[in-house]
Amino acid sequence: MTKIVLTYEDFATLPDDGKRYELHEGELSVSPAPGHRHQRVIGNLFLMLAPHVRATGHGEVILSPFDCIMTNITVVEPDLVYLDEARRRRLSERGLEGGPSLAVEVLSPSSIIIDRRRKMALYASHDVPWYWIVDPDAHTIEAYRLEGGAYRVAGVLEGAAPRALPPLNELLLDPAAVWA
């Protein structure tokens, strides 16, 4: 049996039907549109990160939907991306040509396995240096750093105390504002 490998050109023709489409090494991944809590949490994070990054002049924060075209057969849409100045130069009319400096994924019931396994492996194999997994149920943000081709925990936001997470070490994240 021949495996069909989809490309960016195939991906670009998919319908705008409210579902989230991604290409994972040529395989189509389809997820339902995120729920209210997911969108509220990612919106809260964007409202914290974007002004900080803009004020420091060290890159850009982009809210989904936004294509990160890792290769012609791998296209992902992280919930939130941070681009440092070097990776910002990879922006094109199509999206980001390559991986972001930081990919942020907010877990939903339908995305837990994809975000914790498949996308973590994809981000690592495409040299995304930082990956945050945001868990609205546990009220945690896990920050991972890419080291030797695999992610290692570099910090966790949990409990009520504000904390900075790498790579944005100057920004204190207030848990009450994240989960509001």
Specify the CATH architecture.
Alpha-Beta Complex
CATH H-level superfamily title? tt1808, chain A
Q: Give the low-confidence spans.
A: none
Strand order of the largest sheet: 3-6-8-9-10-11
Rg from alpha-carbon coordinates: 16 Å
Brief description of this entry?
Helix content is 26%, strand content 35%.
How is this structure best described in words?
Helix content is 26%, strand content 35%. It is of the alpha+beta class and 180 residues long. The chain has a single domain, classed as tt1808, chain A, CATH 3.90.1570. The strands form four sheets. The protein has a six-stranded mixed beta sheet with strand order 3-6-8-9-10-11. It has a three-stranded mixed beta sheet with strand order 5-4-7, with no helix packed on it. It has a two-stranded antiparallel ribbon with strand order 1-2. Strand 9 and strand 10 (140-147) form a beta hairpin. The longest helix has 21 residues, at 36-56. It is globular, with a radius of gyration of 16 Å. The mean pLDDT is 94.
